[in-house]
Specification:
With 206 residues, the chain is α+β, with helices and mostly antiparallel strands. The chain contains four helices and eleven strands, in the order αβββββββααββαββ. Helix content is 16%, strand content 45%. Strands 1, 2, 3, 4, 5, 6, 7, 8, 9, 10 and 11 form an eleven-stranded antiparallel beta sheet that branches. The radius of gyration is 17 Å and the shape is globular.
């Protein structure tokens, strides 16, 4: 359960988005690190899977993750569909509240995800970095935070659906871009611990 909760915390951060407010559809996968990631998206609904390796132990989980500025809801399930944990964040003025609730009823509450990881594991994990990468806020494919190495190994081109009149109209006016390149596969490593995150669907694409 400790490793499962680490998985939970490692993707349930002080979140920021992975898809545009306008409907998006996945176009193609990209592995050319010379292409800049972005532009940054603001909200998202994504599904995917993650793998946490720590020493000789491996943990595989699936996730669904919904985010907007005021609220986050992240559900983690085991490979056979059993619930592992639910993580939420509610904005409350300048004092957001983050909560992790495991399948066995244990609850952890913190002012943000960084504080939550400190409470659960006794150390502050670099959790605030992951959503920034996922939403395309970093243009580069590699980075480092507090000794943790972050590598985007594959990205995905997302395109606005032209069936959305507002999105198409704004594009015609030279407003928001019609596509964004966001990470699909991210590896975060330090010492004998690695977290691999694969996004399988974005918005209403899945």
């Amino acid at each position: 359960m400790r490793l499962a909760l680490l998985c939970c915390c490692a993707i349930a951060l002080q979140l920021v988005g992975c898809a545009s407010n306008a409907p998006l559809r996945a176009e193609k996968l990209v592995d050319d690190a010379n292409q800049a990631l972005g532009p940054a998206q603001s909200s998202f609904a994504i599904e995917g899977r993650l793998l946490l390796k720590q020493g000789r132990r491996n943990d595989h989980l699936r996730f669904t993750w919904d985010h907007n500025e005021a609220h986050d809801s992240l559900m983690l399930t085991a490979a056979l569909g059993q619930g592992v944990a639910r993580i939420t964040r509610e904005a409350n003025g300048t004092q957001p509240v983050a909560q992790l609730e495991s399948a066995d009823g244990k609850k952890f509450v913190g002012s943000d995800w960084q504080a939550l990881s400190q409470q659960v594991f006794g150390q502050a994990l670099p959790l605030d970095e992951l959503p920034q990468w996922l939403r395309g806020a970093h243009t580069q494919w590699t980075g480092e935070k507090d000794g943790w190495k972050i590598v985007v190994t594959q990205a995905q081109r997302l395109a606005f659906k032209c069936g959305d009149a507002t999105a198409c109209h704004q594009h015609q006016l030279g407003q928001p871009p019609t596509s964004a390149l966001v990470p699909r596969h991210i590896e975060i490593t330090k010492d004998d611990t690695s977290l691999s995150i694969i996004v399988e669907s974005w918005g209403d694409d899945g």
